[in-house]
Fold this sequence. Notes:
Layout: H1 37-43, H2 79-100, H3 141-147, E1 150-158, H4 164-174, H5 180-192, H6 208-213, E2 220-225, E3 229-235, H7 243-250, E4 255-261, H8 266-271, H9 276-286, E5 292-297, H10 308-325, E6 333-337, H11 361-365
Parallel strand pairs: 1-3, 1-4, 4-5, 5-6
Antiparallel strand pairs: 2-3
Amino acid sequence: xxxxxxxxxxxxxxxxxxxxxxxxxxxxxxxxxxxxxxQQQQQGPPQYYQQQQQPYxxxxxxxxxxxxxxxxxxxxxxxxxxxEEIKKExxxxxxxxxxxxxxxxxxxxxxxxxxxxxxxxxxxxxEEHVVKPSKFPPVNVEExxxxxxxxxxxxxxxxxxxxxxxxxxxxxxxxxxxxxxTLEKYEREAKEKGRESWYLSWALDTNEEEREKGKTVEVGRxxxxxxxxxxxxxxxxGHKSFVPNMITGATQADLAVLVIxxxxxxxxxxxxxxxxxxxxxxxxxTAGVKHLIILVNKMxxxxxxxxxxxxxxxxxxxxxxxxxxxxxxxxxxxxxxCSGLTGAFIKDRPEGDALWYTEIxxxxxx
Length: 366
């Protein structure tokens, strides 16, 4: 097998000299050899630098191949002939489809009916507004004002076991808010539990815990009415552990009733020995109550027996303190002896007892 001779390095080759007058390369144009150097000097600038005439100025000549481009030497463009053949074929197909399918009939324009002339509007009479009768009876404002009753909140305050709940229950019974049958039921239940004297307080102390211990825990609420006013009873607890609940009732009150026990030793316990009588009087004044009724309760007790001296003794000890709290003894304070268990001086004045006193509690509420 013969091997091709290897080409070697030619040390005698001429040095490469770049041609500065070479024609610039344009894609799509045929390469032509530049003219000799002596012809360029005689004839001026080469022909390749002269601007050729373009069919569409502003576009490069390579976009118009077949119309004087450089690479096809003026060859004819076959594309227009193919386009003409395609047009002829499409025209023949359209003619054949027209001959096969009949033309759809053109829709005839609708005939417009003449508009009927509307008769002129006649002036219709305006109907009068008829007021329908109401389902509800008419409101008599004068009667409402006559029957309307002023509403007041009364809070009962005082030391524990002074008789606040008992007086509240007796007041509800005497004004007809609690019937006799309900009180008889409470009395039977109280006898069974050995708390016979507590049955009146059960009208306000509805909680089982309060009935078992005989102490009001929460503020009891009830109401009663007179001829002109509607009253809500707020029965505040008297124990020192429930002072926050007492304050809640005092802030809602328009009038306060301070209940004092006239029994020997109980008044001194509630007033002199750090009881709740002093604290409740100060708190109710701080809450904004202006008028205070002092009920000296348990005047029917065997240790008292409606003794006027005992009544005056309590009044003389209590009035200076209430004056310091901010109450005016002449205009803001009212003292009434009473018995919550029997109802004496609450609605009716008892016969033969305490002839030295004439006022009753309900008359102050009228």
